[in-house]
Design brief:
The protein is 25% helix and 23% strand. The protein is α/β, with parallel strands linked by helices. The protein folds into two domains: 202 residues, Alanine racemase (TIM Barrel), CATH 3.20.20; 122 residues, Beta Barrel (Lyase, Ornithine Decarboxylase, Chain A, domain 1), CATH 2.40.37. The strands form three sheets. Strands 8-7-6-5-4-3-2-9 form an eight-stranded parallel sheet. Strands 10-13-16-15-14-17 form a six-stranded antiparallel β-barrel.
Length: 353
Amino acid sequence: MSRPIQARIDLSALHNNLRVVRLAASARVMAVVKANAYGHGLLRIAQALNDAEGFALLDVRDAITLRDAGFRQTILLLEGFFTQDEVPLLAEYQLTTVVHCQQQLAWLDAYPRKNGLSVWLKINSGMNRLGFRPGEVPAVMERLKGHRAVRDITLMTHFATADEAAGVASQLQVFNQLAAPYRMPRSLANSAAILRYPEAHGDWVRPGIMLYGSSPFADVSAQQLGLQAVETLSSELISVRELRAGDSVGYGASFRAEHSMRIGTVACGYADGYPRHAPTGTPILVDGKRTRTLGRVSMDMLAVDLSQLPDAQAGSRVVLWGDGMPVDEVARAAGTISYELLCALAPRVPVIS
């Protein structure tokens, strides 16, 4: 008999979230499916998002997986190619590549074929992670425009603070000034910019976390944005016991009962992808009712407070995050972000849809 933990993927919620993207922006949608579609399963999510005009990811092997599965949309490598040997694969599988550094330009120069590659030129408008500095852009643009291997060019950048009060104005101004001389497609907006900054939508938007039902904002819930949870991580209570005043729970005895109380043990731990650093008080659902975690998360188990849940027993359903328990709220309690929780789902957890 297998452990009761599982992750359920709600594809109808995914379709809803794509509709939210399309209602917010009239641009073409480049669905971000990197990191195994944020832990949800690359092929499962791509099949459900088949109406999207494109997919964005990191690894050329994943891009080839999509092509071999029959996807004909634009497939963008967000960090481009990592070796010269990958360049011929771009043409063979009709992959679109970001170009963000001089080394990639040198590898393009060494590629002998003509007019085969679609390139997105990454402009560093202020995030200072990837991309050509503003002063480099005119020369790089002329080089790409005359390059024998390049068929077409899209201009792109990435916002550092679209989800914060600082907004996008400064970076948008830099990008627009650099892009003004060129009649080329543009892509700027991540999830936060899609929802808050229509002036930054351009020709392609790149929704990521919002597709999976999580809010890109700390101060606005997914529900307020009309987003629905795609993944629900659930398990069951496998033990229920009584504590006396002074009894401790788990490794390090980090929680100690101040009075007699009832607790349960859940079949879920950090080896399943639940954050070990989630403290006592992290919200959780048992039989559809909110309660809290207690003590330190173990590799395979965690403890929950059943003091106000007298009917909970071994076998009671537990929702770690998802349906009725926003992953954003769990992440906030654990001092992290929903991206990390979703991407950290362990391979040993069965995934159903």
